Known about the structure:
The chain is of the alpha/beta class.
Amino acid sequence: MIFVTVGTHEQPFNRLIEYIDRLKKQGIIDDDVIMQTGYSTYEPKFCEWSKLYPYQKMVELVEKADIVITHGGPSSFIMPLQVGKVPIVVPRQLQFNEHVNNHQVEFSKAVAGRQGNIIVVENIEDLKETILNYSNIIKSMPAEMKSNNARFNSELEKIVEDVFKKVKK
Length: 169
């Protein structure tokens, strides 16, 4: 199953919703597809969809999905990472009136470069090949979030220990 989410930003993301629906219609995607379409005005004809799902249902859909496709909103692509999935991220773009600027493009590319655990697709025409080759693409990618929490906690522990050593003297 493929799960697609465009988040809750108030501008439509018809470009992504229509493209996936077209791939499903053409039989290029033969998996079931479930979409969260948000404020998009296009209503899919070949995929199951809802404008919004409750958060717990979103988690359930992400856990069940073989492929998760999201827009470039951090909450939308971090959650799949938290359950061990490598998301395909299609950032919203200003030129298509999908957002107020291109921060999703810039941010998702920065995360991909730094963390290496998301697949960014800027050109919608590249999405078909990304979906078809998903299994091969993710083989060498980490499917988890890299976090600095453990290092931070370790460093903080050292500082606290040093403070207590100085207090005892």
